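Q: For a teaching handout, I want to show students what a protein-ligand complex looks like in token form. Below are the inputs, and the small molecule is heme C. Please produce the holo structure.
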Amino acid sequence: MAVNRRGIITVLVLAALAFLGWRLVRPLNIFIVSDAFERPISTREVPAPLQTLSAAECGGCHPDFYAEWRTTIHSRAWTDPYFQTDWQFDNEQQICRNCHTPLDRQQPDRVLGFRDREKWDPVLEPNPDFDAGLQHEGVTCAACHLRAGKIVGVLGNTRSPHPVSLLDDPNQVCVRCHVVEGDRWDTFFRFPPCGTVAEIEASIASPGFSGELAVQSTAELGCVACHMPAMERSLVEGGEVRTVRQHLWRGGHDPQMVKRGLKVILQETESGRPGRRVFRLTLTNVGAAHYLPTGTPDRHLVVRFRLMDAEGRLLAEQEHRLVRTVLWRPFIVDLRDTRLPRWQPRSYDFGFSTTGSPPPAVLQVDVHYYLVAESRRKRIGYDNTEPTHFEVFKQRVGLPAKGVGS
Ligand code: HEC
Ligand code: HEC
Ligand code: HEC
Ligand code: HEC
Ligand code: HEC
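A: Here is the structure, written as tokens, with heme C included.
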């Protein structure tokens, strides 16, 4: 009997170890493929007089919109070297194309169906309509504007040569690609993998968050209001002047946009002890309805205090990361989230002795926004030519002068 019991326990332990081992090496699918983006957008019906669906074609009549779009990361969603490196590192999964090059003719293959229930293993066939030029346009005009053979818009009072179908709320356009769910039996996400929408819902819901979703309609999300600033101009050259939305979509790649969302204050506070000074840095997300930073968990802020002597030699240093930390293996668990929810100030204190030798002469405090962590950049072999981080705040305080100078 004893031998038998030991045998059973051994088998159970081995099975548990094998399960954990498999969880540690299995392919990791961090999001759920939803109906919204499991397939590319159909371009079977192209409304006359349009032909190629290229941005340049739309731009022939809508030059201002085209010029703006060309400055954005949407226009580089395919060519973006960080995306390309990550995509290749991740075995060039088909599903990534459905948001980064969402039109069917932007894709070299057609999706006929799926081999697996989770829809990560599509059945493909070469696409005779594939257009490599269009692929390079990433999130092109038609990705947002073409649905069922019509151009979607919100104005409804224009005289356009192409058919228009009206949306009651422009934010509906954004959610197709800016929402990915992660809920599965084996995941423990607090927010979905790219949690922008859920973060807005949580901010609207608190205080007194009762659990149910606070956002009843996409209109409350406000994406377009903040990311496509309004102005007066005509849609086409010589056309009627209307209130339109600029096609700018500034975000993590734009220092000005990040600065606009972030309020940073450095103040000296009571140390309560002679020979000691304490400085307090307070950061508040005043400009983004979602968390700051938001989007992919790559994005983070780094706060750095540096104390130096008169020669500029480092005496002491303190660093804080405002980041969403996810444990990926063996189970996906949201471990910690130190990013900034809207309107909730966060403070960091830095204290030091003024009587040390050599005496401190300068305190420097800076905040940097990171698009991607250095460790991840190295791991996937992303050989960046553009900087992966930039400064959003910096202040130097001369010591021992009391109070904050610059
Ligand atoms: C041959 C010229 C031409 C081309 C090409 C063209 N448009 Fe237009 N479009 C117009 C005109 C003209 C209007 C109406 C302008 C007005 O009345 O102020 C218009 C209106 C619109 C509207 C507003 C509809 C509404 O009611 O909200 C959208 C959106 C739009 N176009 C998007 C596009 C997109 C996207 C493309 C390319 C796929 C495109 N257009 C190609 C001429 C063109
Ligand atoms: C067809 C899919 C798709 C749609 C629809 C879409 N986006 Fe995006 N968006 C993307 C992708 C993909 C990226 C990232 C591209 C990259 O960095 O390679 C992105 C990036 C962004 C960024 C980040 C800019 C940065 O600097 O990193 C902002 C802001 C943004 N989108 C806002 C919007 C808003 C607002 C809407 C709705 C009007 C919208 N998007 C609709 C796919 C989409
Ligand atoms: C990421 C999604 C997205 C992309 C890409 C995009 N648009 Fe738009 N566009 C919108 C939304 C949303 C609106 C409605 C804005 C509003 O509330 O008026 C709009 C509105 C318009 C309008 C009508 C004026 C207005 O502001 O309502 C025109 C014209 C237009 N777009 C042309 C273009 C052209 C040309 C391109 C490509 C060069 C393009 N769009 C790319 C999302 C997009
Ligand atoms: C009240 C204004 C506001 C609203 C509403 C808002 N945003 Fe933002 N968004 C910002 C600001 C400011 C930033 C730059 C700071 C940051 O990254 O949080 C930003 C950054 C972003 C980024 C950049 C993340 C990255 O990876 O680079 C994305 C994507 C984005 N927003 C998408 C959205 C979407 C989608 C919605 C609607 C569901 C939305 N935003 C609603 C203000 C807003
Ligand atoms: C549901 C739509 C969707 C799918 C599917 C998707 N992405 Fe994205 N991706 C986005 C959006 C939206 C952004 C930008 C906003 C953000 O940071 O969340 C983005 C941003 C990125 C970025 C950051 C780019 C930069 O310039 O910083 C990388 C890298 C990326 N995606 C890789 C991938 C890979 C690899 C896959 C497939 C495994 C994939 N994406 C699938 C929508 C999608």
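A: Two things your students might notice: Residues 37, 80, 82-83, 86-87, 90, 93, 95-96, 98-100, 177-178, 180, 194, 295-296, 371 surround heme C (ligand 5) (CB under 6 Å). The radius of gyration is 26 Å.
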